[in-house]
């Protein structure tokens, strides 16, 4: 979701490294099994979301080109489980286009949510080829986009996002929140206005009796809201506000939830640090923990920017961030991962109570890397969407017991 790698060299880094950060952790961080990257037609490509598909491959979505200068197209890349390319596709004419989220449809094909020419968009593509099956757009206002989507039990599609945004990029757009339901072919069934609660719905997850929407504050002066519970018809059951703006969100089978973001409210530094807030099924905050500054540089200059979080089968959480100095005014050296101004992938693994189990720094000596999203893989490892100027597929070796043969991973 960030735009912090515009200075990266074009092409695929030829060398990557990993460093273990011990601190209070009790277990060494896992290693990188492999890293592969794929670019589009733009000067650079930036990923935002990744899933492991039912065939155990991976699907990543974002943009190629730059949203800010209106040269972007929606970009999607599908690989097999070893990261070998199956297909890559671009959508929309060059301009203001966003690729924000992806999921598998009820029939096994793929759905992409985002924006095409400033209109909120859903794109359905063939799983084997990436060929477009259909595209639906909604002109809801000035700049509109879908940020998150989910498939309902009846095979329909729920998409959440915003209308009347500021068209400033892939960060907060300060529009007004929307929630929309379609059938399996993208035909609208109903639309809900969430403007009383949020500037944008960001991620949506099903739960036992409805859906949970991780969302952004109503406006720049408001701290509310961060989490909405809606019923099957999109009506708000309750709305909760917590501590900051959250970009990572996931749920556990027992109903527990995690919101993860970056905040200036921790005691670790006077800059952005990682915040993890655990929430029960009724929206009550159980704990909040802070993490960051893993390389030991002056925290006043280092950003630890969280963009993704996933529940792990052991009841804990895995969170991904990018870490580095964005100002270019500090530029210190000393950590084996490289100078402060070179961005790295930062992974944080906690147990169910938020206690640190391990954290690790991953990167290249040749280019900036930054963690944008991740998914837990069926072999007990993880796949990180790495913004390295291209779509970086960074496979983390198994750290959870899976009972599966991880040969080839």
Summarize it.
The protein is mainly beta and 409 residues long.
User: How much strand?
Assistant: over 45%
Low-pLDDT stretches are 1-15, 403-409
Order of helices and strands: EEEEEEEEEEEEEEEEEEEEEEEEEEEEE
| Total number of beta strands | 29
Q: Mean pLDDT, nearest integer? A: 92
Query: Which class of secondary structure composition applies to the elements?
Result: mainly beta
Span between N and C termini?
Answer: 27 Å
By DSSP (H or I, 4+ residues per run), the number of helices equals: 0
Q: Over the alpha carbons, how many angstroms does the gyration radius reach?
A: 20 Å
Strand order of the largest sheet: 1-26-25-24-23
Largest beta sheet, briefly?
5 strands, antiparallel
Helicity range: under 10%
**What's the assembly state of these chains?**
single chain
Q: How are the elements arranged and paired?
A:
Elements lengths: L15 E6 L10 E7 L6 E8 L5 E7 L7 E8 L5 E11 L2 E7 L5 E7 L2 E7 L6 E7 L6 E7 L5 E7 L12 E7 L5 E6 L6 E8 L2 E7 L10 E4 L5 E5 L5 E6 L5 E7 L9 E7 L5 E7 L10 E10 L5 E9 L18 E7 L5 E9 L6 E6 L5 E6 L3 E6 L13
Antiparallel strand pairs: 1-26, 2-29, 3-4, 4-5, 5-6, 7-8, 8-9, 9-10, 11-12, 12-13, 13-14, 15-16, 16-17, 17-18, 19-20, 20-21, 21-22, 23-24, 24-25, 25-26, 27-28, 28-29
């Amino acid at each position: 979701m960030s735009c912090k790698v515009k200075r990266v060299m074009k092409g695929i880094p030829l060398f990557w490294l990993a460093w273990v950060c011990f601190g209070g952790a009790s277990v060494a961080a896992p290693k990188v099994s492999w890293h592969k990257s794929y670019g589009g037609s733009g000067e650079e490509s930036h990923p935002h979301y990744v899933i492991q598909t039912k065939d155990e491959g991976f699907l990543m979505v974002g943009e190629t080109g730059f949203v800010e200068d209106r040269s972007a197209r929606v970009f999607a890349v599908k690989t097999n489980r070893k990261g070998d390319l199956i297909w890559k596709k671009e959508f929309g004419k060059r301009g203001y286009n966003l690729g924000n989220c992806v999921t598998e449809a009820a029939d096994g094909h793929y759905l992409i949510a985002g924006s095409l020419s400033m209109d909120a968009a859903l794109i359905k593509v063939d799983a084997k080829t990436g060929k477009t099956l259909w595209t639906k757009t909604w002109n809801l206002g000035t700049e509109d986009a879908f940020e998150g989507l989910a498939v309902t039990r009846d095979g329909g599609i729920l998409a959440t996002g915003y209308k009347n945004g500021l068209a400033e990029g892939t960060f907060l757009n300060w529009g007004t929140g929307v929630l929309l339901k379609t059938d399996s072919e993208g035909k609208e069934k109903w639309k809900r206005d969430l403007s009383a609660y949020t500037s944008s719905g960001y991620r949506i997850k099903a739960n036992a009796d409805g859906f949970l929407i991780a969302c952004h504050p109503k406006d720049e002066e408001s701290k509310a809201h961060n989490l909405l519970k809606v019923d099957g018809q999109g009506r708000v059951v309750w709305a909760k506000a917590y501590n900051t703006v959250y970009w990572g969100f996931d749920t556990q089978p027992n109903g527990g939830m995690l919101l993860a973001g970056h905040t200036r409210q921790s005691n670790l530094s006077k800059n952005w640090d990682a915040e993890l807030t655990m929430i029960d099924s009724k929206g009550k905050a159980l704990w909040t923990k802070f993490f960051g500054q893993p390389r030991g540089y002056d925290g006043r200059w280092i950003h630890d920017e969280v963009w993704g979080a996933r529940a792990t089968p052991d009841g804990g959480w895995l969170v991904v961030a990018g870490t580095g100095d964005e100002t270019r005014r500090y530029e210190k050296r000393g950590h084996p991962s490289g100078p402060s101004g070179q961005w790295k992938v930062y992974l944080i693994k906690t147990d169910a109570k938020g206690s640190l189990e391990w954290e690790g720094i991953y990167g290249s000596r040749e280019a900036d890397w930054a963690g944008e999203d991740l998914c837990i893989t069926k072999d007990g490892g993880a796949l990180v969407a790495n913004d390295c100027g291209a779509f970086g597929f960074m496979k983390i070796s198994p750290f959870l017991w899976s009972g599966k043969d991880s040969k080839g991973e």
